[in-house]
Amino acid sequence: EITPVTGVQTCALPIFSLCHERMVLENEAAMTDGPKGQQWKTLDSDLNRISRVEQAATYVARPMVGFGIALAFIVLAALVAGLFFGAQPSNYVVIAAAAFGAYMAVNIGANDVANNMGPAVGAKALSMGGAIIIAAICESAGALLAGGDVVSTISKGIIDPASVADSQVFIWAMMAALISSALWVNLATWVGAPVSTTHSVVGGVMGAGIAAAGMAAVNWPSMSMIALSWIISPVLGGAVAAMFLALIKSQILYQEDKIAASRRWVPILIGVMSGVFATYLALKGLKKIVEINMGSALLIGLACGVLAYAISYPAIRRASVGMENRNKSVKVLFGLPLVFSAALLSFAHGANDVANAVGPLAAIVHASEFGGFEAKVSIPMWVMVIGAFGISFGLFLFGPKLIRMVGSQITKLNPMRAYCVALSAAITVIIASWLGLPVSSTHIAVGGVFGVGFYREWHMERRLRRPGAKAGQVKRIAVEERRRRKLVRRSHFMTIVAAWVITVPAAATMSAMIFLGLNALVN
Predict the structure, then answer these.
(1) pLDDT value at position 478?
(2) What's the pTM value of the predicted model, to 2 decimals?
(3) Does residue 151 register a pLDDT over 90?
(4) How many angstroms separate the Cα of 198 from the Cα of each of 261, 363, 519?
(5) Count of other CB atoms within 10 angstroms of residue 194
(6) Partners of residue 378 on adjacent β-strands
(7) Would you give the DSSP letter of residue 5?
(8) Please, are residues 192 and 402 in contact by the beta-carbon 8 Å criterion?
(9) How far from chain centre, in Å, is Cα 438?
(10) Is the pLDDT assigned to residue 257 strictly greater than 50?
(11) What's the mean pLDDT when you consider all of the chain?
């Protein structure tokens, strides 16, 4: 018998612990190196592969979420139409038209709204999420509160009403115009080209009218004016934007005391912006409430402009206290006015362009309900709701692609340049309305972006070659390098211009083919 000793006990416990740990390690090594250990390695490898497949499937399926939500909205619009008209065979045309109207509204939100929010996002005055939220609210408010309650069913006199006297032919013509314009805007969005949804609808109506009643049915003088707007809209928008950018550069950025110049000129520019937008909204947005002529609208704009100047003058002085005398400080002062201008543009866009989505739908509803058609029809509220929410859904789901294109991929924008683009859009529309010229808000806004970029290129070359420049300042640059340094991306420029030119012919061709197909299917 061994008597336990304290010293032995203190030595035995660590030895026993070390032996136990060694046995555990040997067992783990044996399990790892043996056949069972290989099975665990294989299982871990398979699980890693499965997790990678799951991650890849999630990444691939992410874009499909937007398509799924858009499809659900389109089905919901059809169900709403069925709820109002009943699921009778005679009302299937209205239900189908409601679905295609929702599809068109989604495409307008994906393509057209980028013209209003793109410059603000490109100038980093708004984040992408903030721009989408503001645009969705303002677009819906503009469509529901100030949207036109009357729409021309023949789209500005493109087709002679007498040529489509049969209500059934008229319904199929409007259906073909709706489908073709929606498909064309969808294709343009996929390519990455901002196009005019108004011109898409006009082309669709023209193509269906030609297929239904021949070339004589088209009002060619009206079509020639629309074709002329392809040139007038972007050139006028670009010229106005470049003019304001030249004013800002000469009166603020190139002054010795930029902060003092900003205190003097920024409130004036804010007052001009407020007056212009007040006039614009009075002409376009208040027509549902009261009829306003150009003189009254200009007086409203003048009053709002003076009020905005009186409010912004002390605010700009307070905001500019302690700022450094450099261009970055001036850009900050344009940030908040730019956000307001983008919101007002979205409100005006919702008030005016929602008819592009629901105009043909309203015409089909009227013709189905009353068995005939008129030059102008009222838009039911449920139709307007489909248009408003469709634009918001399209913006939320698919808008970022075109917002990035307009805001940052054509040319580099800052708050001052983006402010000039927004201001030129409103001023150009007012000038065109005064002159009676048909213009496109899309062409004006994108033309303003091009105008700012081309002006910067011209101004940069002019400064390098001015007579007072020193010999060492004029550098000889190779042709390839000079092309690379262009401030407007020529590839995007050519893509967008080509899309503008072929919008009406492409929509008209698709509409004629769809009309002939629908007519053959029914008959």
Answers:
(1) 54
(2) 0.77
(3) no
(4) 41, 16, 25
(5) 27
(6) 150
(7) -
(8) yes
(9) 21
(10) yes
(11) 78
Rounded Cα gap, residues 502 and 460, in angstroms: 33
Residue 330 contacts residue 251 (beta carbons within 8 Å): no
What is the spatial distance between Cα 396 and Cα 388, in angstroms, rounded to a whole number?
13
Residue with structure tokens 């206290």?
321
CA dist 246 and 207 (Å) reads 43
Task: Give me Rg for the CA atoms of the chain.
Answer: 31
Place of tokens 């294989």: 42
* 3-state DSSP percent of the chain in helix, strand and coil, to 5: 80, 0, 15
Q: Give the contacts of 148 (CB within 8 A, at least 6 positions apart).
A: 287, 288, 351, 352, 354, 355, 379
Contact between 151 and 377 (Cβ < 8 Å)? yes
Quote the CA–CA distance of 345 and 425 in Å, as a whole number.
8
Tokens of 160: 């002679």
Write the pLDDT tens digit of every residue in 367-383: 777 766 665 666 777 88
| 129 neighbors 399 (Cβ within 8 angstroms) | no
Give pLDDT, residue 412. Answer: 83
Distance in angstroms (rounded) separating the CA atoms of residues 59 and 340: 36
Beta carbons within 8 Å of 183's beta carbon, 6+ residues apart: 510
d(CA 388, CA 136): 9
Q: Which of 251-284 are b and which e, b meaning 16 or more Cβ less than 10 Å from the residue's Cβ?
A: ebbebeebbebbbebbbebbbbbbbbbbbbbbbb
Report the C-alpha gap between 448 and 229 in whole angstroms. Answer: 15
pLDDT at 471: 45
Is the pLDDT at 46 greater than 90? The verdict is no
Burial 120-137 (b: 16+ CB within 10 A, else e): bbbbebbeeeebbebbbe
Say how many residues make up the chain: 523
Q: For residue 441, what is the enclosing H or E element? A: helix 441-464
Q: DSSP string of 95-144?
A: HHHHHHHHHHHHHHHHHTTHHHHHHHHHTTSS-HHHHHHHHHHHHHHHHH
Amino acid identity for residue 66 in this structure: G
Query: What letter would DSSP give residue 215?
Result: G
